[in-house]
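User: Show me an example of a complex going from sequences to structure tokens.

Assistant: Sure. Here are the input components:
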Amino acid sequence: MRDIVFWLSGAALAFLLTAGAFLLLANLATAPSEKSLNPDRAPGGSGHTLDLQLDRERLASLEPLPDQSLDLAVENGGGEQLSHVNVTLIVSSENTALSDPRYYRQTVEKLRAGGIANVRFEFDLVAPEQPVARPPAATPEPSREILELRATTPEGNSTIRTVILPP
Amino acid sequence: MLFRVASVERFALAVLSIAAILAVGCAHTDEEVSIEPLVPAAGRVDPGLGPGTRALSSGPGYKGSPSWSPGGARIAFTVDGYVVDKPTGSEDLRRWTTRDFIAEDTEWESNDTLMILGAAPPSGGKEISSSLYRTRAREDELELETVEKEVSAISPNREGLIFAFGGAPNESRLALTRGGGKINRLYNRPIRGRVAALSVSPDGEEAVLAVRPPGDRETSGLHEFDLRKGEGREITRLDGNQEILGTPQWTEHGPYFVAGKRGGSVDSDGSEPLYEIYHVPVEGGAPEPAPGMGEDFVAASIRISPDGKRLAVIGRLNPEAPTNLYVLDPLVEDFTAVTTNEDMEIKTGPDDLAWSPGGKSVAVIARGTPSTEPEVHADPADRLLRDFYNLYEIPVGRTPR
């Protein structure tokens, strides 16, 4: 009887010791990986040196008409002056079967460290016409317009903003 | 005293022995498995579509009609009407038609040949009618070879591709092409009415057809066609203004199809199902609601698994519930939710789902709910997922029998 009690007590104690050790190891092992997750980083971007700031109210007021304008701010968040920043606006349709994208470009010269430059784009936001009458099944919904803004520097810094405008 | 010392020693020995057994038993015997780097799109799959879901496309474009290549390594689909395909593991998109082409459906003839049901851009304001085209993967050429005109429906089978055609408004015929752009068998027995959709049974011996009878405004007739004998018959015809939606499917237990009132609206209390799945027993008889799905289920599209035993179903548990993917096993009347998504809009077109060749996953098309305000993202448009309809591969567990 005493032997049985010994073995049962020993088994319980050993189980608790082992489980505790594994829990400790598991916590130690998982702690660093939580810090490495960064899912929202823009691909091709290089840190936070360049930033593009858009005015949401201005975006909401854009209409599918010619002669639209959009103001944005280019910010040099790095520690060195940028010799120049190329800012490109690509206007395209959600409907990829329609006409090719339209490109607009502006250049900001000598953007000092921590400095902000304002850029204005004037562009055509008229939705391209469909060349042929397509059946409803092909694209049954009105297409949205897409504005893609890319800022790049000769030093290899870049950032991007994609704006999807509701129909 | 001696007894006590011996007891303590035995106790310590017991603890150490059991701890050693537990430690060895719990230890990893395999080497660490490395996690493969995520391809750009797959890294941002919306978790609402379930664990293991993989994005198969990204970026803008109204996508539809997914179709896996025979080996499962590529997937073809339509984007705003034109046809593309890509490897399932990379973003290397390949276009098969001009951008002004209007495709309805695509099926693979082989790993480098596609059959496309659609229409080339019309000239002079002519009415568009669909034809069956064949095209091969080439480096710089987009060349379509016409197989047959006035084609209304296609379905792959073991021998090749079965298609329905017919210029006359009150008559359709079936034909088989085994490849090479030739018609290898023309079934002489005409089908009264216009074949709106067709599919072939997994054993390749029967076709089930949704037919719009002469003088009828709705696709209300369900036909079966024996592909060995070349004979067909009407199984059932729906009453009133009921119509068959999409493509009926042939299971081991007879045909299944989605049907409901044409243009019907949900009752004011929101409780009336619009479309239901019906089943016609192999021995014949009137259609019956498919078992095991619940009275309120609203079905949108169905597709039979490669082994003919399970139906992938896109639908809603009730008219106010979100759309999800389900699998129905008719034999055991098991109806399982594969996704329990509440945020994504799963596309409900009749051809907007496809089983992988091995039957382990289903491709669906989904997007997040579009915003009424401008949306700003820090990714290029061609890498965005949930803002546009995109293809997702959703693993489907095997239903135990």
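The lines above are the inputs; the final block is the predicted structure for all two components together. The two ends of chain B are 64 Å apart (CA to CA).
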